[in-house]
Amino acid sequence: MPKRERGILGFVKPSTPILFSAQGETWPSDDSDDDYGTSIKVKPKKKTRKKRTNRYSKTCKEISPDRQATDNAWQSAVPPEILFKIFKHVTDTEGALPFLCRVSAVCILWHRVASDEHLWCNVDLSYGWIKKQASWLLWLSEHRLQQVRILNLSGWKISDLKVESALKVIVENCKQLESIGLSRCKVPPTTLQLLTSCDNLKGIDLSHVESASKRKYQNALKQLLEVKGKNLEDIRLAGCLCNLSKIIIYLMAYCPNLVLVDISNPSYGWANIDIDKFQASCPRLKVFRAANTALTATGNHIESQWCGFAELEEFTIPSYKINDNGQFLFRFLRGSRKLRLLDIRDCVFNLESLLFLSCLTIEYLYLSRCSITDTTLEQIIASWASSLIDMDISWNPVGEEGLHSCLLTLAQDATQLQILNLAGTTANPHGVRSVIGGCGKLQSLNLTSCRCMPRGVKRQFDGKKQLKELRRSLNAQQDS
């Protein structure tokens, strides 16, 4: 057998010249006679898609007892009673998920403590920590949710018969359930009928729900409010499918203990409200939200029978589009001595009516895009500067001199101010320097699109460090 020729490095040359080799296939070199003959095809490997697994879902089920020896160290270091108190503190403030799923994977002891049903009182299943499947909901109802008080199922397919049957099991087994969230779900009327059997139901979120039949949904909602209305304190109906006027009538008729009402962005955005009757029917109301609505006050206002919302703390009606010279605002808020938050952004009524509410102590005031006049803004700031914590007067056509006077008033009196939004206004460097220097608690200042400010500072500043740098920059520009 003839000997093969060896190459430069002493290796035996192959019988067929090759250019390179990849994955067991050879490609001919330029000296080979097969360059234009039969081509050699390399079959690409098929890409296999890995199955996506939910790591949080795995840790919720029972974990096998095959653990390493390190588990003993954890078990001996922290007693179960202390672990339970730590976990309880976290779940009370942040909810059960994903915290309990994570800590249950640490060791056997932590898994056993995290499985205690008394820790699963506030459970949010809307963010995908647990798979949105009926089987998981059934498993949780049997092993974790016996003591649940707050349950959020936003985004779940409640219209699925399996999911609805699992929800039925929860309603039957979880006797402590007080609040349930079904926002952005396809909610059939049978689901609302199912909730009538919740003995302790106090809050329900039906924001932006979908239903096959609006009429049946409205009838089922009326039945739910009629049966459970006396216990309901928190009801959220933003984007509701029902007629807004009928919703308000139902609330006044069946829900005397309401604390929070949200009727924002309704499908039928216009309604009449008998404010005096509403105040008499729901005297405990603390939060009223009605964004993008058109509400008008009806009924004869009788001074001797007037009571007002004495407990009201938040009033939010951005994009209110009826110009009634502020009568609705005045009649609704008169007597609300505890009001802390007032949001009337992008409203068209006469803001001079706010001057009649100067006796109130407003902490969060939002007046963006209200076309407010210089004089009115100066009077408003003079009334509430000492109590303001967060103020938004962005995108208002206030003159430079008028706004400068307002900023000087804030610098002198707004000792509690932490957030100030001046975007799109005529704020000037001198007024901004005064606010930064006078408001010692200021944490955020928005100067976006402020045409009177120099270049490089027309943005938002957050934190004491950025605010100090802004003031230093403005002082340097003034000196130069």
TrEMBL record:
<dbReference type="InterPro" id="IPR036047">
    <property type="entry name" value="F-box-like_dom_sf"/>
</dbReference>
<dbReference type="InterPro" id="IPR047922">
    <property type="entry name" value="FBXL6_F-box"/>
</dbReference>
<dbReference type="InterPro" id="IPR001810">
    <property type="entry name" value="F-box_dom"/>
</dbReference>
<keyword id="KW-0833">Ubl conjugation pathway</keyword>
<feature type="compositionally biased region" description="Basic residues">
    <location>
        <begin position="42"/>
        <end position="55"/>
    </location>
</feature>
<feature type="region of interest" description="Disordered">
    <location>
        <begin position="22"/>
        <end position="57"/>
    </location>
</feature>
<dbReference type="InterPro" id="IPR006553">
    <property type="entry name" value="Leu-rich_rpt_Cys-con_subtyp"/>
</dbReference>
<dbReference type="InterPro" id="IPR032675">
    <property type="entry name" value="LRR_dom_sf"/>
</dbReference>
<protein>
    <submittedName>
        <fullName>F-box/LRR-repeat protein 6-like isoform X1</fullName>
    </submittedName>
</protein>
<dbReference type="Pfam" id="PF12937">
    <property type="entry name" value="F-box-like"/>
</dbReference>
<feature type="domain" description="F-box">
    <location>
        <begin position="78"/>
        <end position="125"/>
    </location>
</feature>
